[in-house]
Amino acid sequence: NLFLNKEYRGICAPASDQQALGHYVNLKENDIIGTPIMKRVKIFLELFRDNSENSGSLLLTSVGNLKPDFCGKYYEAVTGEDFRESWIRNEDDYQSIQIIKIILKGCGYLHALKIRIKLTDKAFAFLDAEKHSDAYMEFLTYYLDKFNWDYLNLRFDEDAFRIIQDSALFSLYILKKKGNGMESENDIIRYFIEAFFKDLFISEDDWGERLVKIMFESLFMVHFCSQFGLIDKEYLPEIFFDRDKKIYKVKTTGLYKKNIQVESLNIERSNFKHAE
């Protein structure tokens, strides 16, 4: 079943020991409500509520996707661009909405029926709530521990870049050491490549290394750090591969400093030398 296989691939992530998350005792609403992930979740749930029928449910397509009309409204709300002028035609073309859908299902905000999908009481409570720090941490934990980052890899073999997710805590450690606004994206990626060179597929020519850089930036910097507000550059995943080629300096946010505790990570010290 195509639908079931697609959904399974989105959640069959490695259950690694991701114990770097803070207790967020000082996490305030202003810290998280403006992050891309929270804005997108809010847009998705509000659109779903406002366009639903039959007790808060939406009718799905024959393969279990959200209908193009809903995808179009979400796209326009997120990007401010006309859906009709985009290359996206349905949910399968639109990773951003698939990611939100998988996270919300995995965290219990959506419940899929045979031909419908509906908001749960938890989703309605989120929309009515004044504080969302618990939800933010729930989404962050799910994305690190359960969501399969390789699901975003549409061009290469399964697990070709699994190391990027498996080493996410090391990459967060690099950001702690080097995310001070002085180092570029390429510098951050270089530390990762040097630490895990033997685990990466890098061909003898320059293309292999460039490919790793593209996937690290996409999977770690764009879809994780930027979307969860851990770095101060906001990327739009919809236009990532079409964006300008300017090299940005990487700086962690106050949210990163409050939320990510990497001093006690259980990672090979031999890898740390590249970030010291």
Structural commentary:
- This protein is mostly helical and 276 residues long.
- 47% of the residues lie in helices and 7% in strands.
- It contains 13 helices and 5 strands.
- The strands form 2 sheets. It has a 3-stranded antiparallel sheet with strand order 1-3-2. Strands 4-5 form a two-stranded antiparallel ribbon.
- A hairpin with a 3-residue loop joins strand 2 and strand 3.
- Helix 3 packs across helix 5 and helix 10 packs across helix 11.
- It is globular.
- 32% of the residues are buried.
- The N terminus and C terminus are likely disordered.
Short description:
The chain has 13 helices and five strands. The protein is mainly α and 276 residues long.
The dominant shape is: globular
User: What is the count of β-strands?
Assistant: 5
Strand order of the largest sheet: 1-3-2
What structural class is derived from the secondary structure elements?
A: mainly alpha
How many helices? 13
DSSP strand (E) fraction?
A: 5-15%
Our measurement of the CA-to-CA distance between the termini, rounded to an integer number of angstroms, reads 48 Å
Topology order in helix (H) and strand (E) letters: HHHEHHEEHHHHEHHEHH
Which consecutive residue ranges, at least 5 long each, have pLDDT under 50? 1-20, 264-276
Please outline the major beta sheet. Answer: 3 strands, antiparallel
For this entry, what is the oligomeric state of its chains?
A: single chain
Mean pLDDT across residues: 77
Q: Specify the helix fraction band.
A: 40-55%
Radius of gyration from the CA trace?
A: 19 Å
